[in-house]
Amino acid sequence: MKEPKRYNEPTPRKASSIKTVILLLAIALVAGFVLWLQFAPKPVEESKEEPPKVEETTEEVKPPDDTEVEAETPEKPEGKVTYETPKPTPPEKVQPDAEKPDVTEPVVVEERVEERDQEAILASLLPNVYTVYTDSQQGSGFLYNDKGDIVTNAHVVEGYETVTVVNNTGQEFVGNVIGISDNIDVALIRVDEIAGKQPLEMDLMKSTVGTSVIAIGSPNNKANTATTGNVTATGRDFNEKFVYTDLYETDAGIAPGSSGGPLIDALTEKVIGINSIILTDNPAIGYSIPVYSVYQMLKSWEANPLTPKEPVKPNLEDAYFDEELLTLFIEGYMTLYTYAQNEVNFSYLEGYLQADSQIYASEREAINSLKDKNYIFTVEKFQIDDITIEESRSLVTTTIETKVTQKDKEPSIKKEQVVYEVIIDEYGDYMIQAVTKTNLTDTEDTQTEADSTDETTEEPAVEKEPVVEEGPVEQQQKNTEVESTEQEVPSVE
Q: What's the rounded Cα separation, in Å, for the pair 187 and 160?
């Protein structure tokens, strides 16, 4: 029997179309993946940023290079290290570094007010700022306590047990290194001759960004130098020969030779940092070690000082008077004297007047007598007419014109000739031992009237004897004998 013919059921057109679409999508995905592998960017390896390298701000004894470097402040500090001179290996220390104290960041509630004039702050602080010399380099330091201990950087005195310390009036002292750290850039020098002298005040709280500061030191071997700026950042860390942590960053200029000098809060006038390093690629920015971070270490050295194995005393000069130093000294005193008058605050003058002298008591009484009188004193003219240097004292003759203003009254001008007797005290500092003031205002008025009435007379008008307002009797007689009117001395601006 013949089988019936079988017919295959035709495939629906719709199912065939779906298979075609799926196949095309699969081909497209594979092609897209291949293209992505071909042209996709390769992953970038994470770059490792090297820690910024720093430059110690110690100056060599030889003259520095005055090449100026222009650089912008980077968002992150960058630079490379350049040591100005190879440092000798320091002697083995028998005293370990004290651990860094725990410090909690304070809450600042104090409203900052206008600071005193930079010149006045500098004048009041300079007697406690020193220049430190070794055979190979020069740095700075400041008086830390009343035992004669001076704080500086470790890299300033590294390799030396005995150094030379010079104050702001040029007096030299022998300093023994009684503490030095191998990993933190801090050292302590003891000068026995200045034990008992009042030190600078230190602020052990953490300062904040925006704090107005003054950096003091001897940049490029120029003593008595200050620069102003602000704390621009805190918590900066560097790791070079020494480990620097939690540094203050400041735009107050720090130059070679400033290492170890104090960073001063311009409001409180207290030390907040130790000027230490600059970046070679951005020398306009300086970095200071906060005093709170090394205070315990300083205290441990103070209590347990190192003893030099073979102390060597440098060749020192005796205390001496110098016209330039005397000029700076008297100018600083005059700046502070105006503040003392206007603020009725005698403490401004204590660092310039011999404590056991008659002038100390009389000036204190004169300043205190201004209380509640609301006078405003403004120095219109100040010039140094003559400086006479003797064996044990110096006489500085000045002319001062002061405008005195009081509420609801016309201002008056007071002109005086003031002679300062300056000595060198037991700490090697200049001190004012006596002051003689001669009122020239009435003398000039009398002379003017005589000239107007005797125009036809050939005889010169007789000048009225000056009236001595203040000063010891013996000093008045000495000053009368000093001839200073014929010598021409350039006026100090």
A: 11
Which strand (E) or helix (H) includes residue 452?
helix 441-453
**Structural domains in the chain?**
55-303 (2.40.10.120), 323-480 (3.10.450.50)
Regions in the chain scoring below 70 on pLDDT: 1-16, 38-116, 220-221, 224, 310-316, 442-493
Which residue type is seen at 60? Answer: E
Q: Which helix (H) or strand (E) holds 188?
A: strand 187-190
- pTM of model > 0.70: no
Distances (CA, A) of 290 to 24, 146, 148, 265: 71, 21, 21, 12
290 contacts 272 by C-beta, under 8 angstroms: yes
DSSP 8-class letter at 182: S
Nearest to 213 by CA among 281, 118, 294, 308: 118
Beta carbons of 342 and 376 less than 8 angstroms apart: yes
Burial call 468-478: b when 16+ CB within 10 Å, e when fewer: bebbbeebbeb
Do residues 122 and 252 make contact, with C-beta atoms less than 8 angstroms apart? no
Buried b (16+ CB within 10 A) or exposed e, 420-438: bbbbbeebbbbbbbbbbbb
Distance between CA atoms of residues 94 and 161, nearest Å: 13
Alpha-helix runs per DSSP H in 6-103 = 13-39
- What angle, rounded to 10 degrees, do the helices at 118-125 and 323-343 form? 120
Task: Report the amino acid identity of residue 385.
Answer: D
Q: Which two tokens stand for residue 33?
A: 């993946």
Neighbours of 96 (CB within 10 A): 10
Half-sphere exposure (Cβ direction) of 351: Cα atoms closer than 13 Å: 24
How far is the C-alpha of 190 from the C-alpha of 148, rounded, in Å? 6
Q: What is the C-alpha to C-alpha distance for residues 269 and 263, in angstroms, rounded to an integer?
A: 9
Contact present, 323 and 313 (Cβ < 8 Å): no
Output the pLDDT for position 361: 93
d(CA 354, CA 351): 8
Half-sphere exposure of 369 (CA within 13 A, CB side): 6
The whole-angstrom separation of Cα 27 and Cα 93 is: 77
Q: Decide: 80 and 280 in contact? Cβ < 8 Å.
A: yes
